[in-house]
Amino acid sequence: MRETQGETVQVPPLSDDLAFLDIVTEWDVDSTFHEWRAGIVVPATFLPGSLPRVIAICNQKGGAGKTTTALEFAMALVARGLRVRIIDADPQEASLSVWLRYFYPEGVEPADRKNLMHLYFDQSVTLQEITYATPFEGLYFVPSFPDLDDVETKHPTGTETELQFHLSKADDGIDVNIIDCGPKLGPLTVSALVAAHDVVIPVQGASGLDVRGAAALNRTITSVQGRLNTELRVAAVVLTDFEKSTLSRQIGGRLAKAYPNAVILPARTSVRIGEAQLAKQPLRIFAPGATTVLDYDRGASILFGNGVAA
Length: 310
Ligand SMILES: Nc1ncnc2c1ncn2[C@@H]1O[C@H](COP(=O)(O)OP(=O)(O)OP(=O)(O)O)[C@@H](O)[C@H]1O
Ligand SMILES: [Mg+2]
Fold this sequence. Notes:
Layout: E1 23-24, E2 40-41, E3 53-57, H1 66-78, E4 84-89, H2 96-102, H3 116-121, E5 132-133, E6 139-142, H4 150-154, H5 159-169, E7 176-181, H6 187-195, E8 198-204, H7 211-227, E9 233-242, H8 246-258, E10 263-268, H9 272-278, H10 283-286, H11 291-304
Parallel strand pairs: 1-2, 3-7, 3-8, 4-6, 4-7, 8-9, 9-10
Antiparallel strand pairs: 5-6
Helix pairs in contact: 1-11, 5-6
Bound molecules: adenosine-5'-triphosphate and magnesium ion.
Adenosine-5'-triphosphate binds next to helix 1, strand 9 and helix 9.
């Protein structure tokens, strides 16, 4: 694992006087719409996770906000001095790896550099070998390329437990591993769920999880909990692209009911997200005062508690 990639950029903490959302214990369904202000729901039963930790960001629905959530949580955590590794487990061409590559001075350039695919197919590859430094101090990542899809089609031996095996062996001082899953519930996503302590489910704040999609995701999570990872929990549901509306209020209420022990985190919408993507920068760097950044920042400190006190 290379420690630096040329010059590193330090990600600063946010100032405390910004317009953070309130933290509440229940999703408010009682007040009038006019009075209602969404808050971050932290149920009384919720306990922050200890470090080191592995989080899988999953939803088989495309465009739910998984990659944005993975990157912005990671940036919030490195701003608190943690060492974070993002594992790109999405074979899509337009995945995080393609994006991250652009803000590399030297670049984790070509697909012939060792990447996540090699972990599943080559017994001699270690996680450290495929972990690269980024320009941001404390942020590391494991890239993937479209050939990662071979894991879905060729089923190498031990796929389900491969990532868990390597993560449990890795002794490289990483505090938090964040796995950005693709929009599928195939073997790769299952291997991420087997490796994880926590699942975070991003849901488009204005469209929700469709009923069948939610049932399929829950079946996969339950099956992994039953067979391969009894400790796995749904730690948070992130309502991405969140705006105050009757629909987003209903969706938040439904999800709070469906996941009574999980944090419900509205990640408010921001036009700056698209601009940040065009500029090929994490939102936190491009527009540190954007509401979305504040929400991910608060969410990260709730999920990790004293490990990263706000
Ligand atoms: N809080 C937000 N406000 C506004 N736009 C958002 C927000 N979160 C995500 N988006 C936008 O939603 C789109 C999809 O986000 P993202 O790529 O993170 O989803 P994804 O679940 O990773 O998609 P895929 O399933 O293709 O991997 C992006 O264009 C992103 O800019
Ligand atoms: Mg994605």
